[in-house]
Design brief:
- The structure is a single chain.
- By secondary structure, the protein is mainly alpha-helical.
- The chain has a domain at 21-65.
- Helix content is 62%, strand content 0%.
- It contains two helices and no strands.
- It is rod-shaped and about 80 Å long.
- The N and C termini lie far apart (77 Å).
């Protein structure tokens, strides 16, 4: 039905994908990024990115001493 005129009209065939694999990959990538960011924040702390970066650099320097 044509909504503008109310008369019968031929319907257009539209393809709809039922496969969610491509979208799931994007969601999974985003979740991995969030989990890694949370782990970095937990390990190195900091109230700002520069402070966190300084903590990471200090940690890496400490590892090189051993």
């Amino acid at each position: 039905i044509d909504v503008a005129t109310g008369e019968a009209a031929k319907a257009h065939h539209q393809r709809s994908d039922v496969c969610a694999v491509p979208a799931a990959g994007i969601v999974a990538e985003a979740m991995v990024a969030l989990v890694l960011a949370d782990a970095v924040a937990e390990k190195f702390g900091g109230d700002s990115v520069p402070e966190t970066r300084r903590n990471v650099e200090s940690y890496l320097d400490h590892l090189q001493i051993r």
